[in-house]
Amino acid sequence: MEPVSAAVSAVLPAGGSGERLGGATPKQFCGLQGRPLVSYAVRAMERVSWISDIIVVVSPENIETMKSIVEKYGHKRVTIVKGGITRHRSIFNGLKVFAENQSSNRLLQKPEVVIIHDAVRPFVEEDILLKVVMAAKEHGAAGAIRPLVSTVIASGEDGCLDHSLERARYRASEMPQAFLFDIIYQAYQQCTDHDLDYGTECLHLALKYCKTNAKLVEGTADLWKVTYKRDLYAAESIIKDSLSQQICIITDVKEAVVQAGFLLHESLKNQVKVEAISISLSKNDSHLQNIFSGECYNFLCINDKEYATEEIQQLVDMLEKSNVPLLYPVVLILVHLNISENISFSIGLEELTKIKKFAREVKKKNILVYGLLIQYKKFPLNCYASGLPILSRGGLEWVLFS
Ligand SMILES: Nc1ccn([C@@H]2O[C@H](COP(=O)(O)OP(=O)(O)OP(=O)(O)O)[C@@H](O)[C@H]2O)c(=O)n1
Ligand SMILES: O=P(O)(O)OC[C@@H](O)[C@@H](O)[C@@H](O)CO
């Protein structure tokens, strides 16, 4: 059963120019792990099943860019609307599409509750969205807040301190915010040009024009807005960090799963969730499909067969078909165990070239292939008789290729 009985939609203002961040590309279109920032907020709304429509408001010159992002990343439930010269005007344009059903390509149901969330706030989870929506249903309006980091002060005309506010009594207004649609729409309809051109707070409009005191909901630390360059770097490292939380070991060499899983756990000391699967890649394993439907983007493939490229190709095909590489680069580490008596300590150049060519090919599918060849040479038994120190029983050579 859906947790929200009301019809809920979202408006994501993405029509700014990103002056404070600098650069030619507006920040909402800057890439994080190769994907535009705006796509993260859209994806966050898409993950919430009870949000019916997602209105993305972009400046006229970026409509085509936004259309290509929606197509490339397979975003659903998205309607693109032309923005205005200010954030409030953009949000108002986004709301109008419901009130006047202006959308050309699909019939949009006017929601009971509308979420407003800056498209440059990539980290928003269903939990906070549910909280602000439920609070808006009860109070008419609701917004996420966070403790102030700096104290708010007012300066006099002489540029000196006039007074400061008691920081503990104040909060920073963040997003997401949610409103009964009729309240926020009526508020925008009554706005003066000064409101629309200089205002920065939707909650204030609900109070000023509809006498609605928004419910304030404590938000989490990751609700911050990407404003300056440093915010982009911070967002990228948070995303990278979250992507590296899980690794999936795939092999049909059963003992390898145990050893590699144990060694990975030991070496990464619980920073990483290791999902180990002993599988023959030739079958369409449901366990593997579950992994693909999750959030795993790192795969360690261990095999001890010569020329396992055919099986690796099958894995790449399965990855591609499951759309895993659509949103983030997938890292595929091929570990080839080559254990035999009479091995020559050199990998065939032809084999290496073949694998490098394969890696180049799949890179175009956003799958990054790295290889580790472990050649383990066992000395003939008579060596053991000579009392060779135990450590020199096997020579280890590996070749990294990518
Ligand atoms: N005319 C505008 C201005 C801003 N926004 C959006 O409102 C959100 C928050 O605004 P802000 O961080 O100020 O974005 P910019 O206006 O682009 O930034 P700057 O003030 O540095 O130019 C952003 O997603 C931005 O794209 C919008 O939809 N339409
Ligand atoms: O458009 P700006 O970045 O200047 O301001 C936006 C912020 O004021 C806004 O996102 C929150 O304060 C919540 O309203």
UniProtKB/TrEMBL annotation:
Sorted alphabetically, which CDD domains does this protein's record hold? CDP-ME_synthetase (cd02516)
- Alphabetized PROSITE patterns for the sequence: ISPD (PS01295)
Q: Where in the cell is it found?
A: Cytoplasm, Cytosol
Under Gene Ontology molecular function, one entry of this record is: D-ribitol-5-phosphate cytidylyltransferase activity
Coiled-coil ranges from the UniProt annotation: none
Q: Does the keyword Cytoplasm apply?
A: yes
Q: Which residues form the D-ribitol-5-phosphate cytidylyltransferase C-terminal domain?
A: 245-378
Q: Which residues form the signal peptide?
A: none
> What's in the keyword line of the UniProt record?
Cytoplasm, Nucleotidyltransferase, Transferase
Q: What is its EC number?
A: 2.7.7.40
By sequence similarity, the record places it as follows: Belongs to the IspD/TarI cytidylyltransferase family. IspD subfamily.
Q: How does it assemble?
A: Homodimer.
Q: Please report the name of this protein according to its UniProt entry.
A: D-ribitol-5-phosphate cytidylyltransferase
